[in-house]
Amino acid sequence: MAKRGYHHGNLRQALVDTALELIEARGPTGFTLSEAAKRAGVTPAAVYRHFQGREDLISEAALQGYGIFADLMEYAYEKGQPSALASFEATGRAYLAFARKYPGHYIAMFESGISINSKPELALLANRAMGVLERAAIELSRHIPAEKRPPAQMVSAHVWAMCHGVVELFSRGSPGTHSPFAPDELLEAGIGIYLRGLGLVPGDDEGAGS
Amino acid sequence: MAKRGYHHGNLRQALVDTALELIEARGPTGFTLSEAAKRAGVTPAAVYRHFQGREDLISEAALQGYGIFADLMEYAYEKGQPSALASFEATGRAYLAFARKYPGHYIAMFESGISINSKPELALLANRAMGVLERAAIELSRHIPAEKRPPAQMVSAHVWAMCHGVVELFSRGSPGTHSPFAPDELLEAGIGIYLRGLGLVPGDDEGAGS
DNA sequence: TGTACATCAGTGAACGCGCGTTCACTGATGTAC
DNA sequence: TGTACATCAGTGAACGCGCGTTCACTGATGTAC
Hints:
Two copies of one chain form a homodimer.
Chain A: H1 11-26, H2 33-39, H3 54-80, H4 84-101, H5 103-110, H6 120-141, H7 152-171, H8 183-197
Chain A binds a DNA duplex (33 and 33 nucleotides) through residues 5-8, 11, 32-35, 42-50, 53-54.
């Protein structure tokens, strides 16, 4: 494998990998097809053997990202079973871990302005990933007293929002992002407090005196 | 005012306004100086009478955004006084309202990749805005039983993250963003649950029976 | 094993484009007398 | 009120650049006989 010379051997994947590096380094729109080609040791024109164009290359990168993401989420979910709570918390952690470990994919997926509907497979994988979080939320909901139970979709939206917010604000170097807390710590605590607010996770002492 | 003809009258601000429209419509990097100039009815070169260049124009847009943002946050905070809880909730709502009402500014501030430290005034205003949220969190903290009280900075980071996440995911049209909930509703509920988790906001019924 | 040939995966030159930026300029405005 | 002049805020042509994309091509690979 990995032959070198006139024929590259596995240019397609090499281009995706390079694209991911560039997207991570330069941001979603800083990425250029030409530079990706150059880095892969190949003429820009060669890209068109494997992709329809720039957009197509980005969306392939996003697609692979969604694949990894969905797998990680599912794995985390299953690992937490049969406890609904453990499953739920694990998917939250998996979200952050994914963003941390695959920043290029994450950006391609959520910040590149790509349309989820440009390819059917893309929509499918994205739904699979988000479905895991939703499923975990539904199971969790059953343990919440009915009167104070928000819709399960809302719970998953909240957690998704907090995950995304932590990633964007504190896991990368954006604005006044000098939080004194590690992103994991921040997210863990945030979800913990949120779950307590739902009437789950009684808390260390439950403030029983009050 | 607003003279027309060879001399524009107030080109500087007109360029900022046009830039904001473009940033909102095309995304942070889709914005081009040339198009902003054309829309303002002026040659690209004219921009250089008022700004050092593209970056400078964007950062002016962000600066104005931070100004509005800081004002809104302060106003919301004061309006909620003397109740720490009301103040805190109000700043959260103000965050979302700002993002909704000034999307161009929001993007210039948080998604344009601009460095907060490129201009001292920028850093100053940004700190002022975020300082409000932090102050509200500190006051709020005093009402939390000491044993289950997280650092105030963490509380403000959590709320900031959730606000930002809601904006990015549900207040604009990004990925599978078809949440069945309105952003306001979502944020309101999310912060409510979070605050309940902190031991504040006893909740409608407190689940007294359990 | 050796040759002929089809297929495949690259090259490299060229294109048109819009970009940010510069420059010498000129038309409009405002002020001094 | 009228004229001379400095200042200011635009023009428009030009630049070099890197981009995405196309095209006819050619070198390498693999297969049939």
